[in-house]
Amino acid sequence: MISVAEALERLFALVQPLAAETVPLAGCGGRVLAETVYAQRTQPPFAASAMDGYAVAGDVASGDVLTVIGEAAAGHAFDGVVGRGQAVRIFTGAPIPSGATRVVIQEDVERSGDTIALQDNLDSGGHIRPAGGDFSAGDPMIAPVRLGPAHVALAAAMNIPTLPVRRRPVVAIMATGDELCMPGEAPAADQIIASNNFGLKAMLEARGAEVRMLPIARDTEDALRLGFGLAKGADMIVTIGGASVGDHDLVGPVARDLGMDTSFYKIAMRPGKPLMAGKLGDQVMVGLPGNPVSALVCGQLFLCPMVDVMLGLPAAPPARRTAVLAADLGANGPREHYMRAVVADGQITAAGSQDSSLLTVLAGANALLIRPVGDGPRAAGETVEYIAI
Ligand SMILES: Nc1nc2c(c(=O)[nH]1)N[C@H]1C(S)=C(S)[C@@H](COP(=O)(O)OP(=O)(O)OC[C@H]3O[C@@H](n4cnc5c(N)ncnc54)[C@H](O)[C@@H]3O)O[C@H]1N2
Ligand code: MOO
């Protein structure tokens, strides 16, 4: 059995960044920028008022009385020049008129007809946003980056109407097993509802993949072959279940029969031991264990980072953080253990049951507490590593 770190390295070797495509800005949220783009203009393009008030020239002081000679609003510049003793009524976002050196906010002014009197306790702020204070024409937005709301808004402000983004990886998910039926169907007494495929779909779509959910494949070679056939065209095929050593665990044999070039089978990890991976033609094949927690933890640890690589992001394991143990933990065995746990206020508490079938426990967890292979007993108060989920 290989280690978790070795498995991730081998999985990274199976994937590469996909091609870029040009997408209108309105569809770019959550996509990954494929090439660095450059601002087409300067922002703000002119010195602009940060407040509603009066633009004035030179030093002014409480008690000064100034003549209002015009108005500047956002989208409506004042064409003239402001001289000493003069003021221009101005609104937030308007260009600062020539000659003006500061904006006095309207709360500090008493207006009477065409004159204003500056009141006591005048603030000292200029309230002017300099031209280019945010960015200048030619400034880069550097790739790769996952485009959040602020990046999309920044690209819009830079006057870039379309962006080069990575094509979404297409992932075909195939749940396998005679015991499975779909949510909403009427299960027989010896059946359960397929859940892992739904959880993985939600997880991978949130990560930027396009997920094709294949029909449930029964535990027969023919059904699995049909499933692999339906997965044609996907960048990655993910099977769930049938990965272990039982008589009905046929995924490995069928995939190998179809020509899978196996990278590895079985890892020293709990949950997730019977993980398998390889290449089926130009498709990546990952066989996940069937236990729901095993499948979803493997999704988090392996599939998400693989999707990142296909999106052109760096190949990196999930980020580790540290927290203080809230209670003692027994020694760990020969597999790296990813324990379902809750982190709150810097303290981490492992769930009482770590059975890999318990979705309620996983749904209640916000962390996977990492126990290294052969780690000894740990006492409350010791610092441990975890992955936020
Ligand atoms: N003799 C051994 N038995 C087992 C071993 C072993 O090393 N020796 N490993 C155990 C471990 S660890 C795991 S994990 C499981 C993985 O087995 P499979 O990948 O073959 O999964 P199945 O047997 O098909 O299913 C296991 C479990 O999960 C349920 N399941 C499957 N698919 C779904 C789905 N899409 N949604 C919800 N639940 C699903 C299935 O009904 C089973 O209850 O093997 C151990 N056995
Ligand atoms: O590895 Mo299994 O995934 O322990 O339940």
From TrEMBL:
Write out the catalysed reaction.
adenylyl-molybdopterin + molybdate = Mo-molybdopterin + AMP + H(+)
Q: Which domain of life is it from?
A: Bacteria
Belongs to which family? Belongs to the MoeA family.
**What metabolic or biological pathway is this protein involved in?**
Cofactor biosynthesis; molybdopterin biosynthesis
Name its co-factor(s).
Mg(2+)
Query: What keywords would UniProt list here?
Result: Magnesium, Metal-binding, Molybdenum, Molybdenum cofactor biosynthesis, Transferase
Q: Which Gene3D superfamilies match?
A: MoaB/Mog-like domain (3.40.980.10), MoeA, C-terminal, domain IV (2.40.340.10), Molybdopterin biosynthesis moea protein, domain 2 (3.90.105.10), Molybdopterin biosynthesis moea protein, domain 3 (2.170.190.11)
Q: Which GO terms describe its molecular function?
A: metal ion binding; molybdopterin molybdotransferase activity
| Annotated ranges, domain MoaB/Mog | 172-309
Q: Which Pfam families match?
A: MoCF_biosynth, MoeA_C, MoeA_N
EC number(s) in its UniProt entry? 2.10.1.1
The alphabetized list of GO BP terms reads: Mo-molybdopterin cofactor biosynthetic process
Please indicate if the UniProt record lists Metal-binding as a keyword.
yes
- Organism in which the protein naturally occurs: Donghicola eburneus
Q: What does this protein do?
A: Catalyzes the insertion of molybdate into adenylated molybdopterin with the concomitant release of AMP.
The name this protein goes by in its record: Molybdopterin molybdenumtransferase
Q: Which InterPro entries match?
A: MoaB/Mog-like_dom_sf, MoaB/Mog_dom, MoeA-like, MoeA_C_domain_IV, MoeA_C_domain_IV_sf, MoeA_linker/N, MoeA_linker/N_sf
Q: Which GO terms describe its cellular component?
A: cytosol
Q: Does the keyword Metal-binding apply?
A: yes
